[in-house]
Amino acid sequence: MTRSKGRGTLKAVNGKIDVVLNVNGKDLALQVAPVEYLLDALRREGFKGVKRGCDNGDCGTCTVLLDGKPALSCMMFAAQAHRRSVVTIEGLGTPCEPHPIQTAFVEAGAVQCGFCIPGMVLSAKALLDENPDPDESAVRHALDGNLCRCTGYVKQVEAVRLAAKKMKKTAERKSAPTILASPRGRLVK
User: Fold this and answer.
1) Is the pLDDT of residue 95 over 60?
2) CATH code for the part of the protein at 100-173
């Protein structure tokens, strides 16, 4: 038997544990081995944007958002994510409607081989959720756990700053009052 802090007792049956993960906003019921890593469980379920890199928490390619915070899925057991929110890159945007951070990475030329990008984008998302207008130092700190062999991180930092500007403009547009004229010329809010 395994304890999942604040989320009830998990019972092992035939060497497997029944867990429920909220992945990208949808509950996913899984049977996992007690020592199965979250990375392996997610990839088995088709979430291939979660990459296997170093397997020891150094590279950041396995980054997911766990309850909104970056987490290394190669360093935690799937059972530890029981009844918690897990966001993978697949849950951030779609090819037809990418998230502003994804768009900014493309526009800034921050994507080269692409292997490290899902982890960087998710780390950037966590940063921008907490700090919508980060300076360069804050961006570099947020991306610090993500290794990239292709670049010197300049374009990735530019991409996160660009995403912050885009997201700020979108938020300002959404919060601006909408004033419409009725057929008789009256203003309607």
Assistant:
1) yes
2) 1.10.150.120
Phi, psi for residue 96 in degrees, rounded to 5 = -80, -30
- The answer on pLDDT for 2 being more than 90 is no
Domain ranges of the chain: 11-91, 100-173
The residues with which 17 forms a beta bridge, in sequence order, are 12, 32
Report how far residue 185's alpha carbon sits from residue 189's, in angstroms, rounded to the nearest whole number. Answer: 13
The answer, yes or no, to whether residue 189 has pLDDT greater than 60, is no
Whether 30 and 45 have beta carbons less than 8 Å apart is answered as yes
Report pLDDT for 50: 98
Quote the radius of gyration of the chain (alpha carbons, Å): 20
124-181 per-position pLDDT tens digit? 999 999 999 999 999 999 999 999 999 889 999 999 999 999 999 988 888 877 666 5
Residue owning tokens 């991180």:
153
For the chain, what's the residue count? 189
The set of residues, in sequence order, having a beta carbon less than 8 Å from that of 66 and lying 6+ positions away, is 76, 81, 84, 85, 86
Q: What is the SS3 assignment for 137?
A: helix
Q: Homologous superfamily of 11-91 in CATH?
A: Beta-grasp domain (3.10.20.30)
SS3 at position 134: coil
What is the rounded distance in angstroms from the CA atom of residue 5 to the CA atom of residue 72? 18
